[in-house]
Amino acid sequence: MKRFKYKAKNAKGELISGEVEASTIEHAAKLVRNQDLVVITLTPKRELPLNISKSFANRVTSGDVTSVTRQLATMINAGLPVTEALLILRSQSKGSMQKIVGQILSDVEEGESLSSAMSKHPQAFSKTFIALIKSGEIGGVMDEVLVRLADDLEKQQEFRGKVKGALIYPVIIVFGMIAVAFVMIVFVIPRLVTIYDQFEVDLPITTKILIAISNFMVRFWPLVILGSGGLVYGFKLYKDTVNGKKKVDEILFKLPLIGSLQKQIILTDLTRTLSLMVGSGVSIIEALTISAQVVSNNIIAEALTDITKMVEKGFPLAFAFSRHPEAFPFILSQMVAVGEETGKMDEVLSKISHVFEVESDQKLKAMTAAIEPLILIVLGLGVALMVVSIILPIYQLTSNFGT
Description:
It is found in: Cell inner membrane. This is Type II secretion system protein GspF domain-containing protein. By secondary structure, this protein is mainly alpha-helical. It contains 17 helices and three strands. It has a three-stranded antiparallel sheet.
């Protein structure tokens, strides 16, 4: 996709300028005309290095997708044709989402299916989303699929909001501590060192250590920045490799509190998504394949890939899940077995997803309850270190003046 700058006139004769994203200049012109504008000029836009402008322009939040899905579900469920619903949706959307909806509308008007048009915008619509829309088109139940999809996205957003809300306090405290330590080491301690040297104050070992760290940071700050950046970049490169991602995921899963919570959150999303896809008519093979492609953890992704192969060979789904205890708890294979016996797999997966969500919520509360006193202990140690390292030498100095 390329970006094009345009100048056009509206029905009132007013000059309008803006940008559109399209595959060709002809497609871009059509997108502008779809906004009831008469094109005057249309030229390709020169992008900034590394496509920075494009990355910002294409940014779409999960809230945007959830809102668009809910509105589209409401209109389709009310009996509006897809093109008319998209036309209304384009007028109500803003920013990058408005451009995306406009492009989808243009593609649908040219004869493409909704799922095909949406698949051109992976920054907004996931593979799971596209598969569900496609199943709704094939089964003629687009309204039902969109309603279920909107409900699911809202649940996901609510759940992730809980996780972010619980973690925001500890994160703010930690960054605050780092900022205070940086200011003390880089700005405060160098000024105190001059005073200490001038009056030959006998310094405790903790103060000497802080002074050594401060001197190193002040003198070699370019090396510190380059070294830190290099470590972060090197870690990212390693994490992007197959073995690196697997190793990092293994370590994360083994971390106390955080590991089990992360696994529980992934399983909550996974089972909810599988329930939604199976209930919307997506085959279990396709649902497992898509889930393996989109899941964020490499251990679970590999397990899902193997499970898919086993199911393709004719093994029961419950048995396939039970072969991977490193990724899935025993209760999941038990519940899946019930779903296979009763023929209500989507309902069973929905229930187990609810169980995982409740457990995730409990573990999240337990983790925050454990982190808060830990933060207080670290703060206390930090204050004690500052008292011993900075306040005591100053007190000693003032005592010498008194004598």
